[in-house]
Design goal:
- The protein is built from two helices and five strands.
- Helix content is 28%, strand content 34%.
- By secondary structure, it is of the alpha+beta class.
- The radius of gyration is 13 Å and the shape is globular.
Length: 120
């Protein structure tokens, strides 16, 4: 069994509940990632959360969680799917963490230059 990772795709939100557009985005990203990860045999979707950030209650985010194997290939696939599907690729952050371990997420990709921090 190869090592597995949590992979989270995060979008910033303007409010805890999100707008109609945010809900559309969540549904589309989940639909595309579920299909793409399964087709590539890299992992599966494991749900989402939407609301206040744990680290800063004044900020809000949409987090979409996946369980993947082959961390680098999975990140590349997610980036390609978001970019090619025009799913607000310019606002996204992608982070990973080893599956089944009590660690923190490590930022692997941020659309905005200079962003180095990540938290749920």
């Amino acid at each position: 069994m190869s090592e597995q990772f949590w992979l989270v795709v995060q979008y910033p939100l303007k409010s805890a509940k999100g707008s109609q557009r945010d809900h559309w985005l969540k549904d589309k990203v989940m639909e595309y990632l579920e299909t793409s990860l399964a087709d590539a045999n890299l992992g599966y979707l494991d749900g989402f959360d939407m609301g206040k950030c744990i680290s800063d209650p004044k900020k809000y985010a949409l987090n979409i969680f996946c369980v993947v194997k082959e961390e680098e290939r999975s990140i590349a696939l997610v980036k390609r799917v978001l970019r090619e599907s025009r799913l607000e690729y310019t606002r996204v952050k992608i982070a990973t963490m080893p599956y089944g371990k009590e660690e923190t997420y490590t930022l692997k990709y941020a659309a905005k230059k200079g962003v180095t921090d990540f938290s749920l």
